[in-house]
Here is the input.
Amino acid sequence: MVYKSIRLFLYAGLLSCCVFARAQKPRMTKDQALQRAMDFCKAIGEPMTPSPEIEFSPPPNRRLLPECALQPVWRIFFPARAEVEISDRSGVVCAYRNLALFDEISKDNRPAGQAIPQADAIKIVLTALDATGQTDELGEPEAHEGNIALPPTAGAHSWTISCRRKFQGVPYHRDQIGVELHAESGRIKLLLLAYMQQAPNIVSLRTSLVVTKEQAITAARAHLSGRGIPATGELLRSGLALVQPNTFWTDGRAGNFVLGPSIPAWTLFLKTGENSAHYVWVDAKTGLIIGGERWGALLSAAPPKSKTPSKLRK
Here is the structure.
C-alpha cells in the first residue's frame, strides 16, 4: 500500500508541483537554466547534448496550492531524452523525468531479474539529491522495491525511495522528496522535490513548543464535539509536524491553504466513526485549531504512520 501511494505521489506530482507564479521577469537567464539542467543530468550519469526546448511561461494559476508552491520554474525539454524543471528563485532542480529510459523499459518484457542492493539504490538517490542543489534537512530514506507488471518484468522492476523534508528535526506535514529508479540498472526514472510549504518564520523550534501533546488532544476532542462530531474514538496516530494552515474547519476544503509560513502543530488523527477519521491540527504554541482533514473509505486510505521526529538539538 505504501509503495503504491509513493508511486502515485511521483506520477501525479511530477512536473506539476513546481508550478508558475504570475508572469514575471526571470532571475536566471535561459543559458544559465540550460547549463544547470545539463550539469544535473551529467552528475546522475545521463549527460545531454545542448539542443533542448526551453520555456519560462506561466500556466493557469492553481488556487488550491500554497503561494510558495506557485514558484516560477524553467522547464527544459531534451527531445526523446529527458525533462528537467529548475526553480528560478534558487536554481534547485525540482523535477526530472528520464524519457529515454521510460521508452527502453516499456519494451523490456523479460522476466524480472535481480535488483541492485537497497544500500546502492539509496546511495544513488543521495548523490542525485546533492546534484539538485537542495539544502533542506531530510529524514532517513525509505526504500520500497516493487513491480507493477503481472507477471513481473524487468522493465517494470523499480526501487521507489522517499525522504521527508524536515526543520530542526521535525517533519513537514506533506513535503517530501520522491525518486524512482529502474531496480536492475540503478538508473533514475523520476525525481520530484514536492516542497509545497513555506519554511517556518522562527529561529528555534524548541521555543515554539508550549502546548503539550495531552493538552492538544483535549483541545482537538473539544473542537470535534463542538461541531457535533463524535470525539471519543481512538487516537489512531499523533505527532509534531510543520503544517501549512488550511480552512478545512471553515469551509470543508482541506486543500484551501492559508498563505504564510508553516506552523509547528500537533497533528492528531482521531477515529470519528465506523468508517471515518479526522485530522485536527493544533498550534503547538497557541493551542488554536489551525486546520485539518477528513479521511474515509474504511480508513484504508489513511496516510502511512509517521515516524517519531528526531530529538531537537539543544
